Amino acid sequence: MIPVTIKNLVFSYPQGRNNILDNVNMKISGGGISAITGTSGSGKTTLCYCICGIIPHIYSGKISGEVLLFGKPIKDMDLAKIATKIGIVFQEPDTQLFSPTVEDEVAFGPENLCLSRDEIGKRIKSSLNIVGMENKRYEHTSHLSGGEKQLIAIASVLALDPRILILDEVMSGIDKAGRMRIKQAILNLKDSGRSIMLVTHDMDDLDIADSMFELKDGKLLSLAYK
Amino acid sequence: MPFIEAKDISFSYSNGTEVIKEAGVSIENGEFTGLIGPNGSGKTTIGKLLCGILMPDKGNIFLDKEEISNLELCQIGQVIGYLFQNPDTQIFNVIVKKELSFILELKGFKKSFIDYQTEKMLNLFKLSNLRDSYTFNLSYGEKKRLAIASILINKPKFLILDEPTTGLDIKSKKMLSNILKKLLDRGIGMLVMGHDEDFIKEMAGRTIKIREGRIIG
Amino acid sequence: MDKYKIDARAKLIITLCLSSIAVFIQNVYVLGFTLVAAILIAMLLGAKLLLVLKSFKKMWFIFAIIVIAQSIFTNAGANLITIGNFSFLSTGGLVKGLEFVLRLAVIVISATIITTSSHREIVQGLIQLKVPYEVAFMVLVAIRFLPIFMGEFRDTVTAIQLRGVDIKRIAFKKKLKMYYYIFNPILINSIKKAHKLSVAMEMRAFRAYPKRTSYLVLKMSLRDYFVILSSVFFTVALIVAYYLFLRGGCFESIINYRA
Asked: Is residue C109 situated within a structural domain?
């Protein structure tokens, strides 16, 4: 089954006059890194919100067309269910990390799912392993660098074991060394068989992408396939 | 004597971690200086020390020949404009044009003068079509431009900009570098902190490298 | 120093006991004794007392004011310095001032006992003491975001000064306006942050079920039970004994006798 299918998606915010997404069609197939670029204000973040259900579950607006997650319309699923299938990491690490230590942060998701303590322990270990942060397990999140914080944000979402990950501008404001580590983590995620949607305005981040799209004035253009 | 000079300054956080270790910096006005280093290397701290927001534990800083600890922040503000990393903490109004005019109103300037200055800044920073917009609806790049514009309306002689390009796309970056070049032509010097080496290269000025609280060249 | 590790709940209860003694008892000797006990316990548990003690330096001023005020307005004790008919410094005033400082010191030092546990342990302690998760979680988030908000607040106040506003010497009418300006970014930022935070939490399945498990589970050892029981017993006994026998205070009776 195709993880994400978007059919004729049109969206505008309640106050907005024009369509921020204008007839978007897209498929994210199993595995691989799809990159979406576009200038700021082109609707990248809005598209992310539509794919992971933040629209229409948290933000509302005028919406038509369909977003299917493993064949089911996303608007009929509840957010907790969606969270186990698709995860999203945002641009600012500070509003995504709210726990005192790395371990607590990664445990937060599985705790909400009422998993057993053994299972939570396993997930903490494997999530931190994929992003290469096992050695920071007992550190305070506030003591980490920007890049490390984003790696922990990725690991915390990963602990819910989603098949698809949306990374919305996760490398903005991160220095070179931090970017390298995040890119490596993204490649590890791809190797684990997950589908990754990498949203960025920085062309330097595109070297790891398998397919590329550009959002321009709400329309999605396919750029290239490797 | 250079415009800003710091001699062997050290600074520690209240928890005792030393973030700046015996650093010396001297900056001339009228030119572009880039301060480059990775996240957490002490760039922001240096910037805050150089304009008196933080006080060094050791060492001295001189601004235009004056020991900086003798100056009040509002006096320093007449000379240096400082852009904080997060534009949200320094936008005080909900309407764009108000943000430009309010500081002149507080200082009691005439309305005709204020209107003239506001229009000038709106044009220079390409914000004219946004003059009546809500500031909290602006994009990140627009907010940064607005913040720099409202600092400039104060007519500082020098700018310290903390990561002005972070989070900006290519178009906004280009726009910003054009504006900064115009300011340089007018003789306003600037210190730009960042890890965006391409941007700093484009501005073609002097670069200072910092790593773990030490100036390394 | 922290080889004496005890459960976060035990610490919460010790703190509660010590501060109730400080609140309910008005006797210098008992308070002095409680302060010594609080310092000892805090040291045993590895609290960083040095920082706290530094902040006590500024207390001398408050102490002096209270002593003088109490000397002027209460007639207890012998007058030490009088100006005309006015008692400027009296033993009663000194005792009251001392009491106040001791009380404050006990409360502050007992609070440092809690800080020897991580926030997470304290919140888990609250949860296992049957405080609802949402409430405990709010405490956690508040502790986490307080420094960030403080930092942003500082930046905002600095930013307006760097625009050339002299916040100390600005005229009163403009001062009100200035507060409004400073308030704006703080309000907008907190709303934005709260919103982003709640979206991030929901996307990590927060409140998926009415219940949730907890990876960290605090287990009480025999020692913790012993600590809790003995501190509760001791505190209750002390307060009861004080109100039955010592009320009025031996110290005061000596003073009154002399007067």
From this structure: yes
Q: For residue C1, tell me if it sits in a domain.
A: no
By the 8 A CB rule, do A4 and A48 touch? no
Phi first, then psi: what are they for C206, rounded to 5°? -60, 135
What are A35's strand-pairing partners? A198, A212
Domain check: are C74 and C20 in the same one? Answer: yes
Q: What is the pTM of this model?
A: 0.84
Q: What is the pLDDT of residues B172-206, one digit of tens each?
A: 899 999 999 999 999 999 999 988 888 888 888 89
User: Which residues make Cβ contacts (< 8 Å) with residue C114, sequence separation at least 6?
Assistant: C8, C11, C12, C15, C122
Tokens encoding C148: 């960030």
Task: Please answer yes or no on whether B92 and C167 come within 8 Å at the CB atom.
Answer: no
Q: Which amino acid is at C218?
A: L
What's the CA angle centered on B39, arms B37 and B44, to 5 degrees?
75
Instruction: Specify whether the CB–CB gap between B216 and B209 falls below 8 A.
Output: yes
Q: Please name the residues in contact with C78: beta carbons below 8 A apart, sequence gap of 6 or more.
A: C90, C91, C255, C258, C259
Q: CA-nearest residue of chain C to B100?
A: C163
| Most B CBs within 10 Å, among C50, C154, C158, C163, to test the B interface | C163
A48-71: b (≥16 Cβ within 10 Å) or e = bbbbbbbbebeeebebeeebbbee
Quote the Cα angle for C203-A181-A132, to 5°: 70
Q: Is the dihedral of CA B16, B18, B24, B27 positive or negative?
A: negative
Q: How many domains does chain C have?
A: 2
Instruction: Measure the CA–CA gap between A67 and A9, rounded to whole angstroms.
Output: 7
3-state SS, C171-185, equals: CHHHHHHHHHHHHHH
CB proximity under 8 Å: C 122-141 to A: 140-141
Per the CB < 8 A criterion, the answer to whether B18 and B213 are in contact is yes
**Which of A127, A132, A135, A137 has its CA nearest to residue A103?**
A137
Strands A32-37 and A195-199: parallel
Test the B interface: residue of C162, C166, C169 with most B CBs within 10 Å: C162
Say if residues A31 and A211 touch (Cβ distance below 8 Å).
no
Show which of residues 79-108 on chain B sit within 8 Å of chain C, judged by CB atoms: 80-82, 84, 86, 88-94, 102-103, 106-107
pLDDT at C73 over 80: no
Q: Report helix, strand or coil for A65.
A: strand
Same domain, yes or no: C11 and C105: yes
Type of residue numbered C4 = Y
In whole angstroms, give the CA distance from residue B99 to residue C174: 16
**Amino acid in the structure at residue B105:** E
* pLDDT tens per residue across span A146-171: 899 999 999 999 999 999 999 999 99
Q: C111 and C231 share a domain?
A: yes
Which of A154, A152, A122 minimizes the C-alpha distance to A138?
A152
SS3 of B95, please? strand
The shortest CB-CB distance from A177 to any of B38, B169, B171 is to B38
**What are the structural domains of chain A?**
4-223 (3.40.50.300)
Collect all residues of chain C within an 8 Å Cβ-Cβ radius of residue B163. Answer: none
CA distance C11 to chain A (A): 19
Which has the higher per-residue pLDDT, B1 or B80? B80
Same domain? C19 vs C108: yes
